[in-house]
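Deliverable D2.4 — example input (structure tokens):
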């Protein structure tokens, strides 16, 4: 099969107490794994598309046969979004962004607190399942955006720098209906080194 579930780059309990080990285990080993498996199952019906990159599948799914287009949209997006999400978190994370990232945020949002408040509001108000993102747009400006379901920001010509999964499966075991508490906790596990690398890509 062309796509494989990449291992979590740290232990399940590495993000405790902010994101609990059980949530991480189910999120990676069950939810993320299902996106990869479902993507492979869809492509098995039309093997001529197995050579497409994950990014191409997540953005050009409308060029695929109608019987797999929506499945590929959901599951290539799910694989791409989650692989990115695991990397932008880590143990001993949080705090302020590093120098270049902080400067880029200040340039667009005046200060980190204003950026954080706007990002939080976007994440809180995603209706149902989806993601909040900090992206660079085609003009090179930083933008806060959201996507529904597992849609990739790449489809909107947005280059993701930071992203937050606000599906209930990302927080329900520990936070139940309290999405705002999960969002607040998540800032403590951000791997700003990775985020800054994404800024410079
Ligand atoms: Mn998820």
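Example output (designed residues):
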């Amino acid at each position: 099969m062309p796509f494989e579930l990449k291992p979590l780059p740290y232990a399940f309990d590495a993000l405790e107490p902010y994101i609990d080990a059980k949530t991480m285990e189910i999120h990676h080993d069950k939810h993320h794994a299902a996106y990869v498996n479902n993507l492979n199952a869809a492509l098995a019906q039309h093997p001529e598309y197995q050579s497409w990159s994950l990014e191409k599948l997540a953005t050009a799914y409308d060029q695929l046969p109608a019987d797999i287009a929506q499945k590929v949209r959901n599951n290539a997006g799910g694989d791409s979004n989650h692989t990115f999400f695991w990397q932008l978190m880590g143990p001993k994370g949080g705090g302020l962004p590093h120098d270049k990232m902080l400067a880029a945020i200040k340039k667009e949002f005046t200060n980190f607190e204003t950026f954080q408040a706007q990002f939080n509001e976007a994440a809180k108000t995603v209706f149902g399942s989806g993601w909040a993102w900090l992206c660079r747009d085609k003009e090179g400006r930083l933008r806060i955006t959201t996507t529904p379901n597992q849609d990739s920001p790449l489809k909107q010509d947005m280059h993701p720098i930071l992203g937050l999964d606000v599906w209930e499966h990302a927080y329900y075991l520990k936070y139940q209906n309290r999405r705002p508490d999960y969002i607040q906790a998540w800032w403590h596990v951000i791997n700003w080194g990775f985020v800054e690398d994404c800024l410079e890509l």
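The two ends are 29 Å apart (CA to CA).
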